[in-house]
Amino acid sequence: LLDALADQGALAIERVRLVEDLDRAERAAETDRLRQALLTSMSHDLRTPLASVLGAATTLRDLDEALAPEAKRDLLATIIAESERLNRFIANLLDMTRLEAGAVAPNLAPHDIGETVGTALRRTEAMLAGHRVAIDVPADLPALRLDPVLFEQVLVNLLDNAAKYAPEGSTVTIRGWREGSLVRLQVLDEGEGLPEAEIERVFDKFYRVRKGDRVRAGTGLGLSIARGFVEAMGGALVAANRPDRPGAAFTLTLPVPAKDRDAAPEIAA
Ligand code: ADP
């Protein structure tokens, strides 16, 4: 009987090992598949704008004399816009790489939220030129321990998205408030909002709701970088749809520094 039991035990162990091997193989295949998809999407994001730049530059060189001044201006505008797109994509890739390497070491010091919001707004002025901007950030919010460079980048990414995905003439709202030991900062827009089933996926690398959307250029990296930066600063970033009207709402939460609060913070979405 003991022998039989031992045999059964050995069999069970063998079975577990087989299942584990299978799991590992499946995971490896999934990782491979993801890496492949990532490479395909990256080369597309790099080559499409590069092809436009090359095309426009070649036309300018070959047809120089034959081109009307407006045509030349259009070609130059294409070169500049596509180069900017490439630049943005590469900057995003670098941010992403730094995040994944754990090389983002936030330089945390107390900063005024209103001021940081002001700087981010100045940086997105051109993007938001066709939108109305409403700011509701009380001046008496406690200073937060944050890295202004990272924090501004987060706001810039959120504001860029609001500008891109909400129609011209609509209002982009920045709201800040204190909730006990937390401060929340929200960017709200009046666009279509996010498909309810895919809300969490917008933070995935290279994820875009409307794939191949060339009108609203993007890399699908902005939000995953934003969340990475916020988490590196000890905060949280979540997406939702506005309850009151169509539009997306991104909420950033950071703890109030210990000296300004009574209880320990609970960072939760
Ligand atoms: P992208 O470079 O594509 O804008 P992001 O990571 O910033 O990349 O966003 C991922 C996707 O989430 C976008 O492609 C878009 O489909 C969706 N999204 C982001 N912000 C908004 C918004 N304010 N309103 C609607 N959809 C949004």
Strands in their spatial order, largest beta sheet? 2-4-5-7-6
* Average pLDDT score: 88
Number of helical stretches of at least 4 residues:
5
What is the N-to-C order of secondary-structure elements (H for helix, E for strand)?
Answer: HHEHEEHEEHEE
Class of secondary structure makeup: alpha+beta
What is the share of helical residues? Answer: 40-55%
Instruction: State the low-pLDDT regions, or none.
Output: none
Q: What is the β-strand count?
A: 7
DSSP strand (E) fraction? 15-25%
Largest sheet: 5 strands, mixed
Small molecules bound in the structure, each named once: adenosine-5'-diphosphate
Q: Roughly how many Å apart are the termini? A: 56 Å
What general outline do the C-alpha atoms trace?
flat
Gyration radius, in Å: 24 Å
Note down, in words, how this protein is organized.
This protein is an alpha+beta fold. It is built from 5 helices and 7 strands; from the N terminus they run ααβαββαββαββ. The chain has helices at 2-63, 69-100, 113-123, 148-165, 222-232; strands spanning 109-111, 132-136, 144-146, 171-179, 182-188, 236-241, 248-255. The longest helix is centred in the N-terminal third of the chain and has 62 residues, at 2-63. The mean pLDDT is 88. The protein binds adenosine-5'-diphosphate (ADP). Residues 157, 161-162, 165, 189, 191-194, 202, 207-210, 218-224, 248 line the site of adenosine-5'-diphosphate.
